[in-house]
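Reading is simple: the token line describes the chain's fold. The lines below illustrate.

. . .
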Amino acid sequence: MGFVERSIEATFEVVTPMFLGDAEQGASRIRESSIKGALAFWWRALHFPEFLADVEPGTHQRRSAFAALRDREQHLFGGPERQGLFLLRVISQPKSKSAGESVRDRPGAVYLGYGCINVKGADLPKIGRDYFEAGTLFTLQLLFRPTANEEDLAEIVQVLRAFGLIGGLGSRVRRGYGSVALVSLKTKGLTADLGFETRPETRQAYIDDLTALVRSQRSLDVQGSALDVTCFARETECRILETKGQGPFDALDEIGQSLQLYRLWGRDGKINGKPREENFRADHDWFKAGTGRGNRDYAGVAEERLPERAAFGLPHNYYSRDGGPKGKGFSITVGAGHESTADRRASPLFIHIHKLTAGKHLVCLLHFPTRFLPPKNEQTTVSLIKVVRQTKDYVYDAAVVSRFLERFPGSEVDLLGRGKP
């Protein structure tokens, strides 16, 4: 039995503009490596609990469980020393579009697209780089090796469905850009139950599809706050909202403006014309007190207090209009002393925009409060972050993100089967 005997073709729709390109930021093609990386990510998110549910934290068995997880992942998707169970090709590409589309009157969408949308100058804001256009399709072909068994095939089908319900590709993917939706799934030579007929028509159908995927695992048996990998665990939170507008930018703008109101200080007491909420006044006052007009090195911000909003991910940027060197700012980053040399910690909040069959859009908010940063040593849960030039102790507070989700009463989803939303 060769590669062509068993195969899958999966077609996805680009739901929101996808910023995925080459070294020059040109949207030339979706690469197979990007797809495999995204599939492996969601496979880990779903299957991590299977390997860890019966293992005590800090034990030798726990290290063995991590090793088994890595071995299984490489068995399916390949790795440095072995090939995976399938060959993957992108056999049709979505339509690319040049930079320049206006996003005026959508401040929330601009906010979520930070770094990919130009906001200064005439006729702005507008999209600042090439992208794959919302509403266009791409198709994957997976050709399986003869050694793939039914369990292997079922897991690949499952992760394709997960990718098509909550996944995406490219820059700002955790802020709703690059979201995708599974449109069709065709198989050859497979007997595994696809569990898929068409994309969801309603919010409830979407919830049913997503909960069926997640509840097939042992997520409730795992404490996520003790894990360094993003996965579904007992602390995972989910909100699914119906949007008022019809287009993808409308959906991005709605959730983006809600996040702005929750997080930002605004100007002259307003945010997008609405009264500011001052949810993080202490963060604002901390920054202002530490900078002061004429303080050119921001030395005053490195006091004992640290900003709560760092819980949304690092770097966490501050920008001054009138204090310190005007027009400049600084970033709070991962502190020195961690094994990783990276200065980033991706957000634990995932925003996914999903398109239903009738053209309406949902917003899926997933909060994964897994371990934010590794502890500075084995005897503590305290981590390190860097403020200006000083490394400070930091304790992650997942409630900062949870309070944002509480802005949407009635949207709670009992994703894991706790018995209550």
Summary: Residues 8 and 22 are 27 Å apart (CA to CA). The chain has two domains: 1-199, 235-416. DSSP finds eight helices and 17 strands in the chain.
